[in-house]
């Protein structure tokens, strides 16, 4: 047994000092072929610095081995040493047999930097050199997927599938196609691919993706069946609980949905979505105290989530706890950019507290952002009618009636205002 093998054996036994001794001896006495094998093993085990030392030593005698330079570039990329990686790649000549491989690594380097178009150009150049190489098809498809160019990604994945590939680099191609079609809004085609993915390899992730797609298509029964199956297979897959609860809620099984939320919270107390969905279900079941408890817990976990804050504020407004609502709203409005719904809710709360000046100001602030929202415009019209703002109410009424021309109440109000003023 040579020193490289002894090093690997020592590492597997967690004997680090012995492994280091064998490593030094390997560098001194093992053959180049043995060092190549050792470097390959060390790289896959994650020992990058040791792999780099071997590559550099081998380069001293194998100066034309471009694969060593490419390997060094890959290590520098993983270590986030971008400039060093680039230096190694630029040493690979266009005349080298390894040049297409260098282009692939160069593309990875650009992708790490967020330079997606530059990465694409490297891959397209590699494709011209090796037009039938599946690795390049896959790399391009993955790049397009990460760029949000889903139609182009699909073409790459489907080409690989026509060649008889179900998976590539551990990634299920049908699943990728499903995710791409889903992103394009073609849920029917997405579900077909996700179904194929489940048939090929029934993993919990595949079941979840298919279940979510059924849910989006409003096929709640089918979605729930999959979610229940997933939960039974892996109770620790906590993303399934809020989605199963939503599916049961859609089928009006509120008691069962609440039970699923409780099960999920036993598995994961740090999933704010469980608390958020639990609050929605509690409100539908008229359990406002439980809903408030869930909303408060969710906000501790996700204090910047405006949707949670607004949902809780809506509950406070419903309960006529206007001062409590104002405290949360004013805190939210202290930030630079907020959802205009906060101004709307502030206006409603101040109006109920008879602070009409602040209510008016809040309505005006919301108006510039929500003048295409029928419900907001109607609330603003009611406020303006009570405050006697006749000129402004005519403008707001006109905008509302453009959106809802058949609203009899607002048509009568508009006629009365135009007749009297």
Q: How does the major sheet shape up?
A: 2 strands, antiparallel
Radius of gyration: 31 Å
- What is the overall silhouette? elongated
Q: Give the fraction of residues assigned to helices.
A: over 70%
**Mean pLDDT across residues:** 94
Secondary-structure-derived class:
mainly alpha
Query: How many beta-strand elements?
Result: 2
User: In terms of quaternary structure, what is this?
Assistant: single chain
- Report low-confidence residues grouped into runs of 5 or more: none
Task: Write out the strand line-up for the largest beta sheet, numbering strands in chain order.
Answer: 1-2
Instruction: Please provide the ordered H/E string of secondary-structure elements.
Output: HHHHHHHHHHEEHHHHHHHHHHHHHHH
What separation lies between the terminal Cα atoms? Answer: 102 Å
- Approximately what portion of the residues adopt beta-strand conformation? under 5%
Number of helices: 25
Keywords, please?
25 helices, two-stranded antiparallel ribbon, 421 residues, 77% helix, 1% strand, mainly alpha, 2 strands
Please characterize this protein's 3D structure.
Helix content is 77%, strand content 1%. The chain is built from 25 helices and two strands. The chain is an all-alpha fold and 421 residues long. A two-stranded antiparallel ribbon has the order 1-2.
Brief overview:
The chain has helices spanning 3-12, 16-29, 32-45, 48-61, 66-78, 82-90, 99-112, 116-129, 134-147, 150-162, 173-183, 187-200, 204-216, 220-233, 240-250, 254-267, 272-284, 288-301, 306-318, 322-333, 341-352, 356-370, 374-387, 390-403, 408-420; strands at residues 167-168, 171-172. The chain is mostly helical and 421 residues long.
């Amino acid at each position: 047994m040579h020193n490289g093998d002894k090093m690997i054996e020592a590492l597997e036994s967690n004997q680090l000092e012995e492994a280091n001794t064998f490593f030094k001896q390997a560098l001194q006495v093992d053959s180049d072929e043995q060092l190549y094998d050792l470097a390959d093993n060390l790289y896959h085990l994650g020992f990058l610095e040791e792999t780099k030392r071997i590559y550099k030593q081998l380069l001293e005698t194998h100066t034309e081995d471009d694969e060593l330079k490419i390997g060094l570039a890959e290590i520098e990329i993983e270590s986030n040493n971008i400039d060093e990686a680039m230096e190694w790649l630029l040493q690979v000549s266009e005349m080298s047999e390894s040049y297409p491989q260098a282009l692939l690594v160069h593309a990875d380097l650009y992708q790490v930097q967020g330079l997606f178009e530059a990465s694409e150009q490297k891959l397209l150049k590699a494709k011209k050199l090796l037009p039938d190489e599946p690795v390049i098809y896959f790399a391009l498809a993955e790049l397009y997927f990460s760029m949000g160019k889903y139609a182009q990604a699909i073409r790459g994945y489907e080409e690989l599938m026509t060649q008889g590939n179900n998976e590539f680099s551990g990634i299920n191609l049908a699943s990728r196609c499903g995710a791409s079609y889903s992103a394009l809004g073609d849920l029917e085609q997405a579900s077909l691919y996700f179904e194929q993915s489940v048939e090929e390899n029934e993993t919990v992730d595949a079941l979840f993706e298919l279940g979510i797609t059924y849910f989006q298509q409003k096929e709640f029964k089918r979605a729930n069946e999959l979610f229940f199956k997933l939960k039974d297979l892996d109770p620790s897959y906590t993303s399934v609980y809020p989605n199963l609860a939503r599916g049961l809620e859609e089928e009006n099984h509120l008691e069962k949905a609440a039970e699923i939320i409780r099960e999920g919270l036993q598995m994961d107390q740090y999933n704010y979505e469980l608390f958020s969905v639990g609050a929605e279900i509690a409100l539908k079941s008229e359990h406002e105290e439980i809903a408030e408890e869930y909303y408060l817990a969710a906000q501790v976990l996700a204090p910047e989530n405006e949707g949670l804050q607004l949902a809780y504020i809506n509950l406070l407004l419903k309960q006529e706890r206007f001062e409590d609502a104002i405290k949360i709203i004013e805190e939210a409005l202290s930030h630079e950019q907020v959802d205009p719904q906060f101004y709307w809710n502030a206006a409603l709360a101040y109006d109920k507290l008879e602070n009409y000046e602040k209510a008016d100001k809040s309505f005006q602030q919301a108006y510039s952002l929500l003048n295409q929202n029928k419900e907001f415009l109607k609330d603003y019209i009611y406020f303006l009618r009570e405050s006697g703002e006749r000129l402004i109410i005519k403008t707001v009424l006109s905008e509302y009636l453009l959106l809802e021309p058949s609203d009899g109440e607002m048509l009568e109000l508009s006629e009365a205002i135009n007749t009297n003023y």
